Amino acid sequence: MPRKFTSSTQAIPEVGAVPRHLAIIMDGNGRWAKKRFMPRVAGHKRGVETVRSMVKACIARGIEYLTLFAFSSENWRRPVEEVSFLLNLFVSALQSEIGKLHANSVRLKVVGDLSAFEPRLVALIREGEALTANNSRLTLTIAANYGGRWDILQAMNQLALAHPEKVGAFGEADLAPHLAMAYAPEPDLFIRTGGEQRISNFLLWQLAYSELYFTDTLWPDFDDAALDAAVLSYRRRERRFGRTSEQLTENAVSPAPTLGLPATGHDA
Ligand code: IPE
Ligand code: IPE
Ligand code: MG
Predict the structure, then answer these.
(1) Does residue 7 have a pLDDT over 50?
(2) Where are the domains positioned within the chain?
(3) DSSP string of 108-159?
(4) Does the CB atom of residue 75 touch ligand 2 within 6 A?
(5) Residues near ligand 1 (Cβ within 6 A)
(6) How high is the pLDDT of residue 264?
(7) CATH, range 21-266
(8) Catalytic: 113?
């Protein structure tokens, strides 16, 4: 049985030196290209290079889960040529990278509403996931046609169908296992490149207690040093999960009162 993770508003994860789960909104490809008088799609192509280097960088740093927002449920509103370029790029990246990911013991997952994709892409995704299902070095999740609201709604509908007798009495722990990323702990660190400071309908439920980091660096320029700067910022944060700073210091010596919440309730 795959492990299910509970919500961090109920269970407090262990805070390590490196985020266990890093989630990134890869933004700024279009502007990167525009600055170079190139078409926007050249930025997307370059962005795939950054994905490749970030997978390596996360493995080298011991990050266990890397989640990348590749295409949002709102990105269909872009010009049709750009949308089809992005989908074709996804197909070709899957084709060229899946063998290398597998060789590096990376488990691939794709989350989002795949019903909108053509069968060829869905088949590639499912094959890639199946091939890498037992790999354990890094779980790489690509969010494609993903929206945080879509995720919460599909989870709610699944739950209501599974337990019609309990409608009106569901708790967080009932819903969480039906979310698209139930196989992963919630993100410890969220990074958005490209200068915008918004969530853009990414992991709405799962980011409840993530540390947020925004950088002006455009995604194609995001390199190992930029990643290290984000991780350093993360290390300096105090993750209180509703407690006071004093409680955390006491907790280092003896367990603090739980106030109804498990002190180390993370089920990992
Ligand atoms: C992010 O880069 C990639 C996707 C949304 C697919 P953008 O294409 O949004 O780049 P900017 O924000 O226009 O620079
Ligand atoms: C968010 O980027 C989605 C992805 C990176 C896939 P956008 O560039 O589409 O976000 P908004 O629309 O500017 O907020
Ligand atoms: Mg953008």
Answers:
(1) yes
(2) 21-266
(3) EEEES-GGGS-HHHHHHHHHHHHHHTT--SEEEEEEEEE-HHHHHHHHHHHH
(4) yes
(5) 26-31, 71, 75, 86, 194
(6) 41
(7) 3.40.1180.10
(8) no
